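User: structure tokens for Chaperone protein HtpG, please.
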Amino acid sequence: MAETRQAETHGFQTEVKQLLHLMIHSLYSNKEIFLRELVSNASDAADKLRFKALSDSKLIADDAELRVRVSVDKEAGTITISDNGVGMTRDEVMSNLGTIAKSGTSEFFSKLSGDEAKDSRLIGQFGVGFYSAFIVADSVLVRTRAAGSQSNEGVEWSSQGEGEFDLRLIEKAQRGTDIILQVRDDAQDFLDESRLKGIITKYSDHLSIPVQMPERDDDGKATEWKAVNSGQALWTREKSDIGDDEYKEFYKTIAHDFEDPLLWSHNKVEGTQEYTSLLYVPKRAPWDLWNREQQHGIKLYVKRVFIMDDAQQLMPTYLRFVRGLMDSNDLPLNVSREILQDNKVTRAMRSGSTKKVLGMLKKLARDDAEAYQEFWNTFGTVLKEGPAEDHANQEKIAELLRFASTHEDKTEATVSLDAYLERMPEQQDKIYYIVADSYEAARDNPALEIFRKKGIEVLLLSERIDEWLMSHLTEYKEKAFQSVTRGDLDLGDLEDEEAKQQQEELEKTFEEQVKRFESALGDKVKSVRVTHRLTSSPACIVTDENDMSTQMAKLMEAAGQAVPETKYIFELNPEHTLVQRVVSVEDEAKFSEWAQLLLDQATLAERGSLKDPAQFVTRLNRLMMELTDL
Ligand SMILES: Nc1ncnc2c1ncn2[C@@H]1O[C@H](COP(=O)(O)OP(=O)(O)OP(=O)(O)O)[C@@H](O)[C@H]1O
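Assistant: Done. Predicted tokens:
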């Protein structure tokens, strides 16, 4: 038995008393974290010893296999966590286990409100560390010996977690620290090695140090120590030492996927923030991809200790298909979700990993167009949420977008903005697009006629998200986006002088007729004008530059929101035979019927529906009857 010398009793620093009280009273619903904290401290002690041994190898030589051992003595009602790490001297024990020597301590205590729920969150932020032992123990015994000290320089610390602790020098044969917890009555369920093993594999599986527990024979006698964690964390190894198969297997374990991932990226970031990320893009979409509330697949580790699943703050919503983990060296072990939300370290990790994911997708698009297309077909619609959510990376996201276009006239979205820019004539200064309900409605919209005639490519968008996307994308590589169904069409330098002059003349000669249409249609339209866009259709409607686009209005209506009524600009094609015939009708009442019919038709082509379809049908029938009577 250890020789007892110089027993002393010391009072805890006031803050320690407060912390202990708070912890016992507010962390009762999360008791198991005590083991994570103590095992993590033991692992840190091993890390520190390894570091010290770099300059003094004698420190480690006699017992070089660093490990943590966890065992239960049911009869005594104790749990022991024992390490052969760096240990502590008497002075270190005094300051480490009697005071709180953290910066911000007084600020922390001044924030405490007495409200247990709120305070428990704050404690999480502060880091409970060693003192969490008292969540499950009513008395704690620490026996420690610093590496490099003599066997008679061991120190024993004991406390009931109230006002004070006892300290004495002891004889300890080996360096390192044993922590013996006398388990409380209400925590007796932790006196079960298989339960503890479960907690260790949950939180500490990837610690680099072996965490050992006793193997027991049928009589319950310990026969040997066996590691219960897998040992070395994959992501802590050098990239060059890890085979593709290992990365793939690891992905399957963490993502619970049966298939290989599409691609991955493993990065060690050093500098102001230190963290490692291992991020995967799966091949297939999860069944709940469309649920924006879906949990995110990023696990957070702090110094290789598992902290939480689905750390949403580490990845933006539009990259919610990414799986993997991040391991920070800077966050406190007891970081909570609330703290992650507003934290410099998390923000840096999030922005770094977002760039990584965008970077790996860009690389895939460049190196393997076919695989990228597969990715786009699976996750493209989610990525389209990006420009609205992440302004800082808008251009990078835009680079990854794919569209259908008039260049290929096929449903599959394969055209990148770069390909569009490359093809466009020098004089073109805008990227033209159309958003409609379906690919066909976009492809056949009359507003495209002039573009087709002039051979100007137009992007054909028809997903629900597209209007939302385009309302956030204003330009790409200094070229503005322009909807072909909005505003006054100005093809700029794409139109030659002669054509412009012709157009002006046409507008002049048709001026009177435009007025006639305006008075016939009254407040059903915003205005009437001669079109620049149509070649084969008689008329179309467009929205004014500052009004809400048709698709946006539809989206809002579908979401049950009140949408201000948008009046359209009605554009006529004076060169179209039908328009020419209509303007030759002299009877104003009849002219008005025809004018209304042309407007309804144009509205149908653009909106896909009419406010009063029955009236349209009645009018059409009436006019058809008149025509067949002739
Ligand atoms: N098993 C151990 N071996 C050696 N030193 C230890 C051990 N456990 C704790 N210590 C010392 O006690 C100090 C206080 O531990 P505690 O767990 O309260 O805080 P921390 O580990 O510094 O912070 P946190 O746990 O919040 O990250 C540690 O910094 C370490 O120096």
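User: Anything notable?

Assistant: The chain has four domains: 8-215, 235-367, 402-491, 494-628.
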